[in-house]
Amino acid sequence: MFGYDSGEVLPTLADVLKLAPVRRGQPRVVAGGDRLDSRVRWVHVAEMADVAHLLRGGELVLTTGIALPEEASKLREYVAALAGVGASGLMVELGRRYHGDLPPALVAAGREHRLPVITLGRETLFVDVTEAVHARILDAQVEELRASEQLHEIFTQLSVEGAAPHEVVRQVARLAGRPAVLENLSHQVLAADSAGHDPAVLLASWETRSRAVRLSERTSFDETSGWLATTVGARGEDWGRLIILLGWDPSPREIVLIERASIALALGRLLDRHEASLERQAHGTIIAGILAHAYADPQEAAVRARALGVPLSGRRLLGVVVRARRDATPEQIVELAEATATAARAASLAALVGVLDEGTPQARVGVLASLPNKAEVDNTLTDMATRLRKQAEATDAVMATGSVVESIRDVRRSFLEAEQVADVAAEGTGDRLFYRLPDLRLRGLLHLLRQDARLQTFVERELGVLLEHDAQRGSDLTRILGLYLDSGRNKAVAAQLAHVSRPAFYERLRRIERVLDTDLDDVETCTSLHVALLALASVRRDPRLPAHRGGMTGAAGPVGPAGPPAEDLELRGDRVGPGPGEVLHHQLGDVDDRRRVVLGDGPFGWAEVVDDPDRAPLAVADPDLGAERPVGAGQGGVTHAAARGGLAVPERGGGRGAGRQLLLLGRGGLLRCGGG
Predict the structure, then answer these.
(1) Lowest-pLDDT choice from 126-130, 443-447, 602-606
(2) Structure confidence by residue, pLDDT tens digits, 422-477
(3) Residues 654, 634 contacting (CB under 8 angstroms)
(4) 481-to-133, 494, 509, 512, 553 alpha-carbon distances in Å
(5) What are the start-end ranges of the E strands in 504-605?
(6) What strands lie across the sheet with 42-45, from one edge to the other?
(7) Does pTM surpass 0.85?
(8) What's phi and psi for 396, nearest 5 deg?
(9) What CA–CA distance (Å, rounded) separates 53 from 82?
(10) 117 forms bridges with which residues in the sheet?
C-alpha cells in the first residue's frame, strides 16, 4: 500500500516565487530553471557552509552568503552537498556578500546538479518568507485533510444507502475526473464510467490490457499504463480490482479516493446478501440501459457487453424474460437469475442475464441472448429451458421469448414482446418449456389488442353491468363467473375452487343471470363472456391504462354513502372491523343501498343494520344448508350449532327456496328471520 506522502499538497518553488514577501525581494532564477516544480517541504535559514548534514530533503535554503567559502571548488562542494540531500533549492540575498551576481562557480554547480539557484535583488526579511511558505504548507495540509474527510463522508453515505457498484464507480470517476473501472478477478468489467471519454476506447481489448497490469501491493500505480489500481475484497476474500486510469503519478488525495471507494464496494458486497451478484447487476445494468435508451450510441452497450464476455455486434439478438407464476420474494428472484445464468452457460448460450426492476413487485429476470448467425434458436432455447426447469423447480417459473432481431436498436422491441408473453403465460396453466406469442392463442391475441377501444367497448358491453354491481355492492360475482367458465362450466369444480357449497354457488350463478339478463346454459353466451373476461384481464394488466375501479372481487366492507371505503377496513378472519354496523358480504347475504342486510332475493326478507352494539348483526345462519357466516364486527359471534339448537324455525313449504330459513343473529338474540 502507498505510504501517505504529503508531497503533492506541498507548494512548489514556482508557488513560492509568487508569494508577496518573495516578490518584493525581486527574485531571479539563475540555475535549475527546469526544476521549479520541486516541492518545498520546509524553509531553512542557514548562514554556514556545512549545513547539508542538518537537512532531510525538500528544504528551501535561505542565505545571505556571508559564510560561504571563497574557493570555487568549495562552492561546488557546497552546492553538490545540498543537491545530494535533496534540497529543493538555494535562495541567496544579494547585497551583503555578493553584489550584482553570484560567483560563476556556484551558478555552474547549480546547473550541473540541477539544483534551482535563485537570487534576491533587494533586502528581504527571511522571517516573512518562512512565515508565508509555512502558512502555505499548513493550509494545503489542512485542505487535504478536509478533502479526505469529504471523501470519507461521500463513500460512507454511499455505503449506508446501499449504493450499487456502478454508482460507486460513477462517483470515483466524477471525483477523480478520470475514467474508472471495476473488474472481477477474471478481468471482466463489472462497472465502468468513462468520465466523458469515449467508452469504446476505454473498454477496447480490456481483458488483454488489464492482465498486463500486475499489482505489486494491494494499492499500486503502474507507470507503464498510468493506472492506479487497488484490490477489492474483505475478510480475506478478494473478488475484484478498482482502477482509475490516471495517466500521471497519483496524488495522496487520489490514493485516498480509490481506497475509500474500495472499502465502500467491499462493504456493499458484504451487506447485499439478498441482492443479485455483481455479475448479475452488471448484466442487468446494460440490459436496463438498452431498454431505457440510456446509450446515445448503441455500440457503447456492445462494448460494455464485450468487456463482460458477451459479444453483441454482428450477432442475432433475442430478448427473453423469466418470471415466477406467483409472487416471489427478492431472494427467490435473485436465485432465479442465478439459475437462469447457469442454465444459459450450460447450454453454451452467450447472454447477459440480470434482474430488471429489482426490489419492486415487477421484478423479473431479463436475458439478452446473443446467437451466432447459424445457431438453431429453438434447440438452444429448449436446452436452456430444460436445464432451467431442473434448477428452478421450486420457483415455478415461466420463460418467454420475443422475436429475433438483428441490431441492438431493435432489442427493446424483442424484450417488450417477451414481457407481454410472460405476463400472459404466467396467468395461464400451460406447461411449455418456453412461450412465444403464437403459443398464447386467444390470450395472446387479446393481449395484443388490449389497447384497442373496440375491445374495451366489447368488455364493457358484456361485463359492465356485472362489474358495476360488484363495485356498488362489494360482491364477487365477476370472480365467480370467471371460475365457472375457466372450469369448463363444471359447477362442482367451480364451487370447490370458490370454497363455497354447491347450493350457494348455484344461487350466485342465478344471481349473475339476473344481473346480466342472460342464460348461462347458452354456449355462445358463455363463449362471449369468457372472451370478455380474458380481455378484461389483459386490460387490467396493462400499466399504461387506468385501473378499472369497479368489480373488486372478494371485496368486503360497509355499504352506503356513510361507510368508509372497503380498503380502509381491516379483515379479521371472516369479520370486518373495527366497529358495529359493518357487514361482510358472503354467499348468504348481500347489502342494499339503504344499509340493509338482504337475506336472499325475491320473497326473502331483510333486516336493518343499525349502530346499536346490541343489535349489530353478528352472523347469518342457514340451518338447512349447515352454513353460518359472521357479518358484523361484534364480539363472540354465534355458531351454527347454537342457531340450530336454540332458534329452530319450522319449515315452510311451497315455491322457490322452500324449506330455507335464514337467521340474522346478534348479541340480543334473533334480530330478523327471513324465509321463502
Answers:
(1) 602-606
(2) 888 887 777 888 988 878 778 777 877 777 888 888 888 999 899 989 888 888 89
(3) no
(4) 89, 9, 7, 8, 11
(5) 571-572, 575-576, 590-591, 596-598
(6) 27-31, 117-120, 89-93, 59-63, 42-45
(7) no
(8) 55, 65
(9) 9
(10) 31, 90
